[in-house]
Amino acid sequence: xxxxxxxxxxxxxxxxxxxxxxxxxxxxxxxxxxxxxxxxxxxxxxxxxxxxxxxxxxxxxxxxxxxxxxxxxxxxxxxxxxxxxxxxxxxxxxxxxxxxxxxxxxxxxxxxxxxxxxxxxxxxxxxxxxxxxxxxxxxxxxxxxxxxxxxxxxxxxxxxxxxxxxxxxxxxxxxxxxxxxxxxxxxxxxxxxxxxxxxxxxxxxxxxxxxxxxxxxxxxxxxxxxxxxxxxxxxxxxxxxxxxxxxxxx
Length: 250
Known about the structure:
There is one protein chain. The protein has 5 helices and 14 strands. With 250 residues, the protein is an alpha+beta fold. It folds into 2 domains: 5-155, 3-Layer(aba) Sandwich (Rossmann fold), CATH 3.40.50.10790; 166-249, Beta Barrel (Elongation Factor Tu (Ef-tu), domain 3). The strands form 3 sheets. Strands 2-1-3-5-4-6-7 form a 7-stranded mixed beta sheet, with helices on both faces. Strands 8-9-13-12 form a 4-stranded antiparallel beta sheet. The radius of gyration is 20 Å and the shape is elongated.
């Protein structure tokens, strides 16, 4: 069975994404490919959340590439992480860490860029390094085959998704929030928003409140979602990805 490659980036444009596809084709990989280039610019937290959400639905042995890389070209390492069910490839800045930890990290390697490409741009390691490594892994090669060096797990940069942290805002303006507690429908949550305290009901569906009214519910990604029925909670409350909201259960 041909291994799936997933690619999660903050590129936001088809020009950069097309170059990744060109590299994949040039290496004769014709296995399945899933792409998501809609992570907010530079948001390692959102990238980590989106990769972790995606990997829940992918088959064992998949190769996941994460390129949210504001430190590209610096001395930050490129890494390969092997979990109990997947491979992860990208910068050692924490974007891969929550997903890999959730699956159980087995081993890690530091990528030796000079053994991957003759030319490595200082601004596009996604094209010149990471996507090539992903294809090699999907083709059954081992990191030692392209001279990657073992990396102590303690050297992996960790990122934790903190309770109350905004991890994603979707196209509708629904605000996805990391939340470790059980949501009880019928109760209320107390949010601190735009300098004001707002009581918001916990419901099961959007339609349980009137149009334009706020609500909280358990979203499809198993996060707490702050929403406005037929409106945008992100706009109404000026919420941004990455910020940590003060929330209290009533």
